[in-house]
Design brief:
heterodimer, A: 719 residues, mainly alpha, 3 domains, B: 102 residues, Helix Hairpins, 0% strand, elongated
């Protein structure tokens, strides 16, 4: 085993160990706990980047990736093998996942108010008011486990190991979203962290079950779960493609693809299972960054990028596979759908949550139209700028909370209508947030988001997926619009509350990650500029990203011709959105108490968007309440209380009655005669003991009397 | 020849004499002597029956001799016990030797 393979094995280990170390040993010491967590993820980062750089320097890396496996579960004549692999796709993930995780954990140190004395009113399970987080060490333990699980998933060479990481992340998201489990709100309609955690867990679980079925189905058909063994084997792929599945008219490959894609729909919050993600904002902000940028939602997209050869099986020049059609539809719909909702949200984190859903929709749609490279590219750039935006929003909230602490006002620190004018008070946060926002909007040429988004649009355009192209273009416009709205409402103008006026910049542990991520949000896009792009393509080495990553595919993927039309349209959409946002919010910033101008323009539509199309209410009405009704009435009252309890009570009653009979018999039939027998023996003993005189002559006399009596009987009676 | 009934009457009288001694005397040595007398009465019976029953068979006589031997042994054991008791309790009165009651 050479060094690269060894390091690939070791990448997920430090954070996983750090979890146990913190939970078991160091949890009393806050400083030691965060040092362990940071050191562990730092070690993973070191390992990962070593692997990345060794991979970049290896010739013919795509044909010979770093891979190793061990027989894990011998099954009859074959064995289920567990192993790791670092192929081009993994290497790309290894470049940004540990970095983002590292920065998030560093950020959490400041976010959890490290170094401040503990506020006596804070209890474990509540969000800290101004002092240090009461469950400080636990937070870092969970973050470590989360990061470890994500890295397991990243280096996994088979679907089962990937699924392990996937599920641990599901657990961690539950734990972390509900981290402030003691928090309650005055408004009963507002979802609590507790409920949000449960919602996220159940929603993703539903999808995971389908995915697990897909995995099992795949294993039963292919006999292996190793990615390369499946994708690089003509025989297996042909078998999957030409065997009809249990559902008529659908090939096995496509049904498996759909089932596995269902996992992504849940994990990456695609319509219709997106509902958990906005509510996941109830967790601490580093968690939001972890879930929305570095780990969980990226995992969903990473998985379908990884499974792309299977999902696209049977796709020809004339069109995609049925799986891809579904993906393109769901992705594009989600992209637009979530973008429209984001326009009308006032919670600074919820806007970002919906933008995440929308951007993930982009990636899913990109895969749906076969834009493999673009999807992976957008996955990477999005991870940078979305982590940046989330941590920026955390910094904003932190600043406003500081103001609230100072002024003792009662207001929502996440409501953008209470902010404004933060640019002067939080300069680092402002500039980095601006960079992240512009990257998200696709500000032309200087931000990474532009290049990756443009590549998706160009792909849709080149392959003639017109409706996907139009929908994504529309979503891009809306994205730019709500990003500008968010920036303007938050940072520009004058403060709309006392608390916002008293906010101030966060500590260096929070701002430093912002600066690092801002760097990548700007420049990470340059690795994937189309090689025919004027000047830049030549200058940046003819799209090294594309050349590198297509090696992960078994078949050569034809690149697309460069075309000015989508580029210009995307520039127009991005700048147009930003411009509209500027006109509406930036030129004349909102004054305190002034309503959102959008309300007047959109009217009832705005209400629908602000209510998220009332999908939560619909799900509540159509799914949650019937489920609760079934649980309460059918399962609990009828089946449990009536049927099961009734049967048990009858049986128990009969047993009681039999036992009572047995008891009566025991008492009067066995115990009583036995006692009486004993008593009789004792009484006769008392009466007879007087003849036991101990004098031998008395005995002889008795003996003589007995002999005479017996003899008399013999002589007189028995004769 | 003296008829058999005379022997039997004599033996019965002897036995009754012995029995009376056993039941009535207080001295343990005397009781033991009574037992010996009863045994001798039995031997008289035994020998008389042998003589009047089947004198050709030697078994009757032999049986009588064995009973003598047993009686002698028994007397020896009995006396030893009495001596032992005497040493322990300084008495040979049967009514005072009543340890073996409940």
């Amino acid at each position: 085993m050479d060094l690269s393979t060894l390091l690939t094995w070791l990448i997920p280990l430090p954070p996983l160990l750090s979890f146990f170390l913190i939970i078991l040993f160091t949890h009393r010491d806050k400083r030691l706990s965060h040092s362990v967590a940071l050191g562990a993820i730092g070690l993973s980062l070191l390992f990962s980047w070593t692997v990345v750089f060794r991979a970049l320097r290896t010739a013919h890396f795509a044909e010979h990736p770093f891979a190793a496996s061990v027989a894990w579960l011998p099954t009859g004549d074959s064995a289920l093998r567990m192993g790791v692999t670092a192929d081009p796709l993994t290497v790309v993930m290894l470049f940004f996942v540990p970095l983002a995780c590292f920065l998030i954990i560093l950020y959490s140190v400041g976010y959890s108010n490290y170094g401040k004395p503990r506020d006596d009113r804070d209890v474990p399970g509540s969000a800290p008011r101004h002092g240090v987080e009461p469950m400080y060490s636990r937070f870092f333990a969970f973050l470590s486990l989360f990061a470890g699980a994500m890295l397991v998933l990243t280096v996994a060479d088979n679907l089962l190991l990937l699924f392990f990481g996937w599920e641990i992340m599901g657990l961690c998201s539950y734990l972390l979203i509900g981290f402030w489990h003691g928090r309650n709100y005055d408004n009963p309609a507002q979802i609590t962290p507790r409920a949000a955690g449960v919602k996220a867990f159940i929603t993703t679980r539903f999808a995971d079950v389908l995915m697990l079925i897909g995995i099992v189905y795949l294993y039963s058909q292919a006999g292996t779960l190793n990615f390369r063994e499946i994708f690089f084997s003509e025989e297996i792929m042909n078998h999957l493609l030409h065997t009809p599945s249990v559902i008529g008219g659908l090939a096995t490959a496509h049904l498996i693809g759909l089932l596995i894609f269902a996992g992504t729909v849940g994990k990456s919050a695609q319509f219709p299972l997106h509902v958990w993600l906005p509510d996941a904002m109830e967790g601490p902000t580093p968690v939001s960054a972890m879930i929305h940028a570095a780990a969980m939602v990226s995992a969903g997209v990473y998985m379908i990028v990884r499974m792309f050869p299977l999902l696209s099986a049977g796709a020809g020049a004339d069109g995609g596979s049925p799986t891809m059609t579904v993906m393109a539809f769901i992705g594009a719909f989600t992209a637009l759908f979530a973008a429209t909702i984001a326009v009308a949200q006032n919670d600074v984190k919820r806007v970002l949550a919906y933008s995440t859903i929308s951007q993930l929709g982009y990636m899913v749609a990109a895969l749906g139209i076969g834009a493999y490279v673009a999807a992976a590219f957008h996955l990477m750039t999005h991870a940078f700028f979305k982590a940046l935006l989330f941590m920026g929003s955390g910094s904003i909230i932190h600043g406003v909370e500081h103001g609230i602490h100072h002024t003792q006002e009662k207001l929502d620190p996440q409501d953008m209508l209470n902010m404004g004018g933060l640019a002067k008070r939080m300069p680092v946060t402002y500039w980095t947030f601006l960079i992240g926002g512009f990257a998200l909007s696709g500000f032309p040429f200087i931000t990474s988001g532009f290049w990756s988004k443009d590549e998706i649009l160009a792909d849709a355009f080149a392959h003639g997926h017109w409706w996907v192209f139009v929908v994504l273009l529309l979503a891009a416009f809306l994205t730019a619009f709500y990003t500008m709205r968010q920036i303007a409402l938050t940072f520009l103008g004058e403060p709309r509350s006392e608390s916002a006026a008293h906010s101030h910049e966060s500590t260096w542990t929070m701002t430093f990650p912002l600066v690092v991520l801002a760097f990548f949000a700007l420049f990470a896009g340059f690795v994937g500029v189309h090689s025919d792009f004027p000047v830049l393509g030549e200058l940046l080495g003819h799209n090294p990203f594309e050349h590198f990553i297509v090696g992960a595919l078994p078949h050569h993927l034809a690149g697309i011709e460069f075309n000015w039309t989508p580029v210009l349209l995307s520039v127009v959409a991005g700048l147009g959105g930003l411009g509209c946002g500027w006109l509406l919010y930036g030129r004349r910033p909102l004054a305190a108490g002034q309503p959102d101008p959008l309300v007047a323009y959109l009217g009832p539509v705005h209400e629908m968007l602000a209510g998220k199309y009332f999908l939560d209410e619909l799900y509540d009405f159509a799914l949650v309440r019937p489920a609760k009704w079934v649980a309460e009435v059918v399962a609990f009252r009828w089946i449990d209380r009536g049927l099961i309890d009734g049967t048990l009570h009858t049986i128990a009653g009969a047993a009681m009655r039999i036992a009572a009979g047995a008891r009566w018999f025991d008492k009067w039939g066995i115990n009583y005669p036995s006692d009486k027998l004993g008593d009789g023996v004792r009484a006769s003993g008392y009466s007879f003991r007087v003849i036991q005189t101990g004098r031998v002559q008395d005995y002889l006399l008795i003996t003589l009397s007995a002999v005479i009596a017996v003899s008399g009987v013999f002589f007189l009676v028995l004769r | 020849m003296v008829p058999l009934s005379w022997y039997l009457t004599f033996a019965a009288a002897l036995f009754a004499l012995g029995l009376y001694a056993v039941l009535a005397r207080k001295n343990a040595v005397a009781i033991l002597m009574g037992v010996e007398i009863m045994l001798n009465a039995v031997i008289v019976n035994l020998v008389a029956f042998w003589r009047y029953g089947n004198p050709a068979d030697i078994a009757g006589q032999a049986f009588a001799v064995i009973v003598f031997a047993v009686a002698a042994a028994e007397a020896a054991v009995g006396l030893a016990l009495i001596i032992s008791i005497y040493r322990q309790r300084a008495t040979v009165m049967a009514e005072q030797i009543d340890l073996m009651k409940w």
